[in-house]
Design goal:
The chain is mostly helical. The protein has 14 helices and 16 strands.
Length: 431
């Protein structure tokens, strides 16, 4: 089975070229705000600035995470350059997003750094923890870890639902829950809790503290108990505070509400995101790896999440993964968005590395071809945002207030790590 590793040599070369010669240079040359600090995100299909310059916590921290994490691939002057890009982003984050009165990070500031929206979204605080922990792991800056731990502590005090479990998600400046309905004070979601698990994985990796380990395990247990159909292998979408499934709606201060094509789909409670399911598979695997513990009761779910996406959410005619569907029934939205497809590269390749299942290898190869030939604008250096089923551009922007280096850069980095492992295994077999 491991002979497949050598057949990925072309994909490895192409991904290296795409990451190191396209994506990193794109954001390094355009994304650094040389005047005020932090990061600029809005770039059109030609890589030219467009639209507003307000800075969202979620993408400022994702850019900080990206430059920190991707420095692992570089040495010398190139590594130092990525460090400088990350360092100035850290300074802007701490100087302008941190709320010195109530604690936590604001959701949105102006380009200059003046607060616009002082809300404390669990989603945003989560990515602050993720980025600060990664910065500490890469560069050893104890201030970054200190703020990651401060933010974690605030979530435990003000956002944790000690009655029902999990975390409230939309929270205002003074840590009061937001209103119900569109403001989502009465909702919980797989999306936010999955990314919290992701952040806790990196926080525990950075701190080694027992409390962070326990909260990571707690987040995994909660997701698996309430948010995933373990028998069939898909995640649900939204819940009330007691984790009863409810129909998903577009929520204030979310990507679904602010994306250019923000369809409001009226459907039953069992909607699912194929991209989230595949992403959850490999993020769970990473969490188990960091925890250094086997969880045999959950291991089968990692495969079921991949298998469900292939059976119901994958386009075997044109390649790539669809946006949304209903559980184990029909696809609802056949458009293809950048993040689901980049994350699926990691998920399917991770599945192949773990299980040597040729179906995952084929899905990885097909998805990469679709990403390479349709999503990636190689002349400019980044991915288009949204395509139709056949791969024609619907929204060609390279970046926006929600789209930066995180999904594209991370996916290729994670894939390269696994492709290197496959090639190393193959060399060992040859020896």
């Amino acid at each position: 089975m491991l002979s497949r590793g050598k057949s990925f040599c072309r994909e490895k070369r192409e991904m290296e070229k795409t990451l190191f010669e396209k994506i990193i240079p794109f954001w390094a040359s355009r994304g650094i705000d040389q005047e005020y600090g932090g990061y600029l995100l809005n770039f059109d299909e030609n890589g030219k600035p467009y639209g507003g310059t307000d800075k969202y916590l979620v993408t400022q921290t994702r850019m900080l995470w990206g430059f920190s994490h991707l420095s692992r691939w570089k040495q010398g002057a190139e590594k130092d350059s990525l460090y400088q890009h990350a360092r100035q982003g850290l300074q802007f984050l701490l100087n302008h997003f941190w709320d010195s009165r109530f604690g936590g990070f604001y959701w949105k500031v102006s380009r200059q750094g003046d607060p616009i929206d002082k809300a404390k979204l669990t989603y945003g605080e989560t990515f602050a923890i993720y980025a600060l922990s990664e910065y500490y792991l890469r560069f050893g800056d104890k201030t970054a870890l200190e703020y990651a731990e401060k933010t974690f502590d605030l979530l435990q005090i003000y956002a944790a639902d000690t009655l029902n479990g999990g975390y409230y998600e939309n929270i205002e400046e003074n840590w009061e829950r937001s209103k119900d309905g569109f403001y989502a004070g009465d909702r919980k979601s797989l999306d936010i809790h999955m990314h919290l698990m992701e952040a806790l994985t990196t926080l525990y990796q950075a701190s080694g503290k027992e409390i962070h380990r326990r909260k990571l395990i707690e987040s995994i247990e909660l997701i698996m108990r309430h948010m995933v159909n373990q028998d069939i292998g898909y995640g649900y979408n939204q819940f009330d505070v007691s984790f009863h499934k409810i129909p998903a709606i577009n929520i204030y201060r979310t990507w679904n509400a602010e994306r250019e094509t923000n369809e409001e789909i009226s459907v039953p409670v069992d909607t699912t995101s194929y991209g989230h399911n595949v992403e959850l598979s490999w993020l769970l695997d990473r969490a188990f790896e960091v925890l250094r513990q086997e969880t045999p009761e959950y291991r089968p779910v990692l495969r079921k999440l991949l298998d469900h996406s292939l059976q119901y959410g994958y386009d075997f005619e044109y390649g790539g993964i669809y946006r949304d569907g209903i559980a184990d029934k029909e696809v609802l939205v056949k458009d293809k968005e950048w993040w689901q497809n980049f994350e699926s590269l990691v998920g399917y390749l991770n599945g192949y590395v773990k299980y040597q299942d040729e179906a995952y290898a084929e899905a990885f190869e097909r998805t990469w071809v679709f990403v390479r030939d349709n999503f990636m604008n190689m002349e400019v250096g980044e991915s288009r945002q949204l395509l139709d089923r056949q791969g024609e551009s619907i929204v060609g922007n390279m970046g926006n207030a929600w789209k930066g280096i995180y999904h594209t850069g991370r996916a290729l980095s994670e894939c390269l790590e696994r492709l290197t492992l496959l090639n190393t295994r193959e060399d060992e077999v040859d020896d």
